[in-house]
Amino acid sequence: MSHSxxxxxxxxxxxxxxxxxxxxxxxxxxxxxxxxxxxxxxxxHYKNGFEISLHQDKLAKPLSWKKPKLIFVNSMSDLFHEKVxxxxxxxxxxIIEQSKQHIFIILxxxxxxxxxxxxxxKWHENIALGxxxxxxxxxxxxxxxxxxxxxxxxxxxEPLLSLIENIDFAGIHWALVGGESGQNARKMxxxxxxxxxxxxxxxxxxxxxxQWGDKRTHDNLIDGKSHLEFPQSWLNxxxxxxxxxxxxxx
Length: 250
Ligand code: SF4
Fold this sequence. Notes:
Layout: E1 2-3, E2 11-13, E3 16-17, H1 31-40, E4 53-54, H2 61-64, E5 70-73, H3 86-98, E6 103-108, H4 111-117, E7 127-132, H5 140-145, E8 152-157, E9 174-178, H6 190-203, E10 207-211, E11 221-222, E12 225-226, E13 229-230, H7 235-240
Parallel strand pairs: 2-5, 5-6, 6-7, 7-8, 8-9, 9-10
Antiparallel strand pairs: 1-13, 3-4, 11-12
Protein name: Protein gp37
Organism: Desulfovibrio litoralis DSM 11393
Pfam families: DUF5131
């Protein structure tokens, strides 16, 4: 387990944009208003607003980034949305295979489709695959993730909407927790966060606390301390990363 003194900064890569609401964590989806605004501003990649759109011209982008980056695949969509064709997902995975200098973070709420397609995809070493578990009702996603042969598997408890007990962390390499942000943010209770932190400690899983989300001054501190742990295997790439990476949404 490793600890960083600063928040991880991801480079977004959006060969797919657009999505549709799927579960309770989507209620205040951050991507929807951004997509609509970009459409209004005439951004060509958002001419369909929040409809699923495939962008061939974005596919090769990671090949042009020579320095190692943590790349968030589809920050403006969900790669396993039912309208994203398998062959396009496979093209994305081909680029990942050719971009060994980077780590690609793939996060989905659509664990059923992920599981269904998982044997048709090559789980390259530089992929970290995660599912969102926003409340105890979605723990089944973790069970599906545990059956997929990705080298790094993680669980994203954000926006955390309930107490989640008895989490089975077998085969899980990283856990992130965060509250909802934005105007209509739903409240996250401190005891929900502490419970996951303690369960991670017991299971020896790195625990990364992202945010309370409610605009308090020290938004990522628990009892005055930051908890920014990440998988040991990432140490090299994080040390080599530029300290500030511009987050690009388009
Ligand atoms: S899955 Fe993600 S991008 Fe899609 S609607 Fe839900 S929160 Fe938004």
